[in-house]
Each structure stands twice: as structure tokens, then as C-alpha cells.
Amino acid sequence: MSKLPSLKNLSYLLALHQEQNFNRAAAECNVSQSTLSSGIQNLEEQLNCQLIERDHKSFLFTALGEEVVEKARDIISASEELLHYAQGQGNIMEGPLRLGIIPTIAPFVIGELSKNLQNKFPKLLLQLSEDTTQNLLHRLRNGELDILLLALPMDIQGNQKWVLGRDPFKLVVHKELAETVGEPVDYDKLPDRSIFLLEKEHCMAGHAVAACQLTDSIKMNPFTATSLHSLVQMADARLGATFIPQMAIDRDILENTDLVALKPTGQEASRDIGLVYRPTTSRRQTFRKVAEEIARLLPINTLN
Amino acid sequence: MSKLPSLKNLSYLLALHQEQNFNRAAAECNVSQSTLSSGIQNLEEQLNCQLIERDHKSFLFTALGEEVVEKARDIISASEELLHYAQGQGNIMEGPLRLGIIPTIAPFVIGELSKNLQNKFPKLLLQLSEDTTQNLLHRLRNGELDILLLALPMDIQGNQKWVLGRDPFKLVVHKELAETVGEPVDYDKLPDRSIFLLEKEHCMAGHAVAACQLTDSIKMNPFTATSLHSLVQMADARLGATFIPQMAIDRDILENTDLVALKPTGQEASRDIGLVYRPTTSRRQTFRKVAEEIARLLPINTLN
DNA sequence: TATGATAATCGGAAATACCAATTAAAAATA
DNA sequence: TATTTTTAATTGGTATTTCCGATTATCATA
After folding, report:
1. Where are the alpha helices (DSSP H) in chain A?
2. Could you give the C-alpha distances from B121 to A153, A274, A276, B114, B116, in angstroms and in order?
């Protein structure tokens, strides 16, 4: 049986894949360029296959090389986890935890969440990162993040998830408009193009439309906002109505406005909130405890 | 950041855990005893924790050591998989696949299965192993086996599963008894203590009792058999009736007997057949293709 | 008390990992 | 076009690590 590749060489390969440049990758690994170069050659020899196509000046990862990178990532991160685990004397709630959250959830949970985690697991080092669903999924794949807090349904690619709970949508309008619209909401009473939503990079626009059965309605305004807070300001300026998730209202996003929240049409006008992680992780237990903490903060907790 | 442990030292630890003896473990790894000894010490230093308690003469793995062994196993096997994968130029249906099957399934699928896999994936090296559910689960944990074909429901511990299909139970009686019993079966027409089952090491006894709603019936005979073929012989000798899964009947287990198969009472008198694997595996795609092949051989295929 | 088995330790030899300097080739710039 | 810069591979030498055989220390047991 041939010898296993060394973790060192695998980490060289990962750095090279990330930097796409031998010098920068070598610097990243704190070794000389020649060391990294021969490390890669060594690896190719051991694996008995071509990982990168040399182009005399530059290079390109082969298809096989890309796949080896994927697998190497899992091995390296499992090894890092083993190291942390052992150094923490087996305490799984210790060390860094890199959590990615989408912008329509983050501001309404991170305060309470980090406070609670800090209390219960003082050695856990929560590192938050706010980004769009697509970017977060990419960074999860990279190994740059450990878990993601997303709104579902969503294509989570090869990953696994727990559904933590549900977050109802409310139609938010100026109080002077509330009576005209009624409750539950009758969209026909709203002027055309008077519903404002987030730009489509945010999944919330789609979720709200689907959950509230508003597909292709002429009621939607083509102008889109980039944050829930902007939407609230637009509604407060009587430009129209909008959908705001319950968790934002619970955190007083409507304070100091003249807005009211109405229950939209549709039995279950809500989005699901889920925690997403790589199927190859070996930190399920850690993630699970975090999942429980997050679920307790949601308007409707559906975690087992 | 501290240095990652080397795969070599991790494999020394695994060998030591398996052999529980430095000399044998060293032989296993093809290194000297001193090398293995210092490898372990080295590892403890790097991980900054005690993995084994030295007792001046012998030793014992600490709780933390046991857990590190678990995690190390995953890392080593992921590395071996990477090696195989790369050496096979990325062909996931290549190299050894160690499949464990329980005795009440094995004889009725392995013939067709190995033939079909051989045709479709000639480079796949299927290594079969027949054992009880409990032993198989233990060997899966060990890394001694890759996947298990089991009857469900069953506590599969921390593992993951796919349900491949369903296998109905039939009540098998001598043809001279068939008319008395009727169809669907009226158990009251059977004499007391006339139903024979497998010994309780086999999960099938429990599954049959549950599926056919026979709990604690006085109809059961306390004498138990060790194989389905014995049960068939006993029924053929008019000692009583028994339950036989459809897949066995499909493979002509009743040939050259005077037995008939009757539909038992109960809407869904059947067992589920599932494929079980470690959650940390990185060979899901390979396993999935095997799952599809197995599902095609079952009486009722329920795999997506 | 001797014997055998065990794991740790020690010293030296072999293998390797690493670096700095150099080379070679292409790209960017003058 | 000539020069400079950037890039990865190669080379040769050094430092480090790994490994082995021999030895030691400890215990169980004959």
C-alpha cells in the first residue's frame, strides 16, 4: 500500500488553490516558495496523478486536482478540529465558531445570541459574518465558515440542515392606511405598485412573495431597497407598504415610526429559519447546542 | 497556531488502540517499538493532552484518548479515500467496498448484487461480510466496514441511512394446513405454540412479530431456529408455521417443499431494508450508486 | 530470585524538509 | 526592441526529523 499524503503537503495544496500563486501561497504557509513547489510535486508523485497543469509560466488546477482540493479541505479541517478538541481537553464548546448569517436575520439575533452563548459557553469564540446566502454557501464550502443561519426553503447544495423555527411575515403600513387595508390583509385595497421589497440578492423578497401568495402581482413596486431598515423608512414616509419579518418587529424595528403590522393573507405566511453545515463536519454536537440557543430566540421554535 | 498532528502518528495511535500493545502495534505499522512509543509521546505533546494513562507496565486509554481515536479514525480513512480516489484518477466506483449484511438478507441478494456490480463497475472490489446487526454496527464504527445492509426499524446509533425498500413477510405453512388458516391469515385457526421464529440475535423475529401484530401471542413456539432455511425445513416437516420474507421466497427458498406462502394479517406486514453508513464518510456518491443497485433487487423499491 | 514481557530512553544513522540562490521563461514596461 | 519584473522550477547545502538498535527500568510470574 502506498504512503498516505502528508497533511503538510495537503495544506500547501489548499493554500495554492486559494492564492493561485506559488509565492503568495508559500508566504501564507510560512515556507519558502521552493519548499511549497516541491511539496506539491511530492504530493503529485505520492498520489500518482497530475493535480495542476503547468503552463510554463502559470498553471491551472486539473479537474482531478480540484476534487482533491475538496477532499483535502475536509481532512485538514477535521485535523484542526481534532487538535482544538484535544487541546480543549475534550470540551466541544470551546474555541472559534465561525457563523455566517444573512442580513435579514443577523441584526435581530446576534445581540441576544452572543450574549447567551457567552454566558453558557464562555470559552466559545463566536465569529460572525454577514453576507448573502450565495456568498455564505460559497464560504461554507471553502471551509472559511463553519455554519450558516439562513432562511429556507433554499437550495443548500450538498450541505445538511436543521430547521430551527418559523418567522412569520407581517405587512407593515402607515397607521393611517391600516383601516383601509383591514386584517387579514386585502391586497386589493392597496394602490398598485405600493408594495416595496428588498432587492433580489436578498432571498427575503422571494420568500415574502411566496409565503403571502403575491406572485406576479401588479401591487409590487419595481424600486427595491437594500435593508429592512430602509423598507421601514420608506413605509413610514407613506411611499407604500412592505413585508417585515416578525423577528425584526420583536426587536423594535418599528419603534419611533407611525407604522402598524398587519397579519397577511395566507395560513402560514412565514419563512423557515435553518442552520446549515457541511455533511462532512465532525462538530455536529457543537453545532447542535448552538442550534438550540438560536431556536430559542425565534418567534416560533420548531426544533425537536 | 500549533502544528497539526501527523497522519503517521495518528495511525500509530489507531494501531495501539486496536492492539492494546506497543510491540504488536509497532509490528502492525512496520516500525520499531521505540518509534511507535515516541510517536505517541510526540502526539500527546502536540495535542497538549494525555491520551493514555501509563501504569508503569501496562497502559489505558483516557476518555479523551478514546475520543481522539474516534476522530483520528475518520481522518485516516478520509485520507485513504483521497489516496484511492486520486490514484484511481477520480473514478469513485473503484477499489474496495466493504459491505456488511445480516444473515436474513445476505443469501437472497449477494448473488445478483455482485453480478450486477461486477458488470456496471468492474473495478469495484466488493468485499462481503455476514454478521448480526449489533456486530456489524460495531465493525462499521471501527472502520472495518464501509456500509451495512440492515433490516429496519433499528437503532443505528450515530450513523446515517437510506431506506431502500420494503420486504413483505409471508406466513409459510404446509399446504395441507393452508385451507384451515385461510387468507389473509386467521392466527386463531393455528394450534398454540405452532409458530416458529429465529433466535433473538436475529432482528427478524422482532420485526415479524411487530409487523404481523403478533405481540406476546401464545401461538409462538419457544423453540427457535438459527436460519431461515431451518425454519423452512421445520415447517415442511409439519412442526408448525413460520414467517419468511418475500425476498427469500422470490429466490425459491420454498422450492422442493410442500409449503405455501400466505398473506399475513396487518396492512403492511413487512420490514424495511436500509443501507447504513458513517455520517463522516466522504464516499456518499459511491454508496448511493450501490444503494440504487440494491434497491432494484428488493420486492418493493422505495428509494426516491 | 531468576525469567520474561513490557514500555521508555538514548545515541547515532538515514531520510527529509527546508532555505537561499539561481535558472528559465514569459509578461510587462520602457 | 531591449529591459525589467514576475513567475515557477531547480540546485546544493544545511538543519531537522524520523527511525532503529541497544539499553534500561519496571513489573508479573515461575
Report:
1. 7-19, 22-29, 33-47, 63-87, 106-120, 133-142, 175-181, 203-211, 228-236, 246-250, 284-295
2. 36, 38, 34, 10, 8
B247/B104 Cα distance (integer angstroms) = 10
Q: Which amino acid is at B85?
A: Y
Grid coordinates belonging to B241: 408455521
What single-letter DSSP state applies at residue A131? -
In the block, which residue shows the cell 412573495?
Answer: A209
Q: Report d(CA A234, CA A227) in Å as an integer.
A: 11
Cα four-point dihedral sign A21, A27, A30, A34: positive
- CB atoms near residue A73 (< 10 Å): 20
Residue A7 near chain B (CB below 8 Å): yes
Q: What are phi and psi of A184, to 5 degrees?
A: -65, 155
Task: Inform me whether the C-beta atom of residue A2 falls under 8 Å from chain B C-beta atoms.
Answer: yes
Residue B212 in this model has a pLDDT that exceeds 80? no
φ/ψ of residue B61, rounded to 5: -70, 135
pLDDT band for position B97 (50/70/90)? very high
Q: Is A73 in contact with A102 (CB distance < 8 Å)?
A: no
d(CA B44, CA B65): 9
- For B221-244, what is each residue's pLDDT tens digit? 877 778 888 888 888 888 888 999
* Dihedral pair phi/psi, residue B90, rounded to 5°: 90, 5
Give pLDDT < 50 ranges for chain A.
Answer: none
pTM over 0.85: no
pLDDT digits (tens, 9 = 90+) for B180-203: 777 777 777 788 887 888 887 788
DSSP-assigned letters across all residues of B125-168: EEEEEE--HHHHHHHHHHTS-SEEEEEES---TT-EEEEEEEEE
Query: CB contacts < 8 Å between A and B, how many?
Result: 102
**CA neighbor of B149 nearest in space, from B283, B246, B270, B287:** B287
Chain B nearest CA to A278, separation (Å): 10
Q: Of all nucleotides in the shown strands, which has a C1' nearest the CA of A58? A: D7
